# Entry
Amino acid sequence: MRIVALAGGIGGARFLRGLKQAAPEADITVIGNTGDDISLFGLRICPDLDTVMYTLGGGINEEQGWGRTEETFTLREELAAYDIGPGWFTLGDRDFATHIVRTQMLDAGYPLSAVTEALCDRWRPGVRLLPMSDDRVETHVVIEDAEGRRAVHFQEWWVRLHAEVPAQGIGAVGAEDAKPAPGVLEALDAADFVILPPSNPVVSVGTILSVPGIRAAVAAKTVVGVSPIIGGAPVRGMADACLTAIGVETSAGAVAAHYGPDLLDGWLVDTADAGLEDSSGGTVIRSRPLLMTDVDATADIARAAIDLAGELRP
Ligand code: FO1
# Structure
């Protein structure tokens, strides 16, 4: 069984851990969002790729959902002593090592896909992890506050401003001219089906789909998604702030409609949203408990997604 999943950070990574348990024999390719990537302290940081890699490789800080386990912060303290910021983005010593290796390889001319493969040689995530593109794409958010109207990097809005300043617009800068990374279209072409984990539909899955060629290649397949919205609220994170910014209601049904029936064949919603099953429109909707309380519960959700894909495959 060949499965492709499009993943953002924490929610996507946790779902993938369940997917691996549910389908241990499957050949899983993960197309990771790189729109959250940021350069700080001269280093290239890829939060979503790292979150998937650390989570599946056993190195994640479980409570936090991002960053390394058993982390220390000496480097951060030393930088702060020199008054070198930004202080709002926390990088630990172990995590810094990943960014140093990545940046060295990028500076030596290796594309991000090759760098990611090299990093995964250490972490052995048990999936093939591909960045959506080797080209630089960065999500920026238009906000207006006391400092005026301006576009800030997604991480500044998300982490420094806690997405509390309303986003007037969200855009993936560079996406229009980006090409899918090597292996992305090939993996999609060879896939038996595609899964959309409960990742942010705007800044994670939406950004991946904005790379020219990817949406059409995904839509050509049987696609089953897992709703990141339960009972009108995001399971975690601040997806509601992103949905509001693009004029989509924070509900499981509205997110399915946003993806569209041309893309989405099946949609798993939580039992809290059970009424949606009757809604027509081309996407088959099923309800079941969707809280990823532990790996076993997550594997059950993944199994339901696989079963639905099996039912819907032509
Ligand atoms: N999230 C935070 O809320 N605060 C942080 O300081 C922070 C630092 C950070 C460093 C490395 C990394 O891989 C992820 C990090 N995240 C942090 C998570 C990240 O900002 C977002 O959750 C994702 O980009 C959204 O998927």
About this structure: The first helix runs from residue 10 to 22. The pocket of FO1 is lined by residues 8-9, 36, 45, 47-48, 50-51, 66-67, 89-91, 95, 155, 158-159 (CB under 6 Å). Residues 138-176 form one domain.
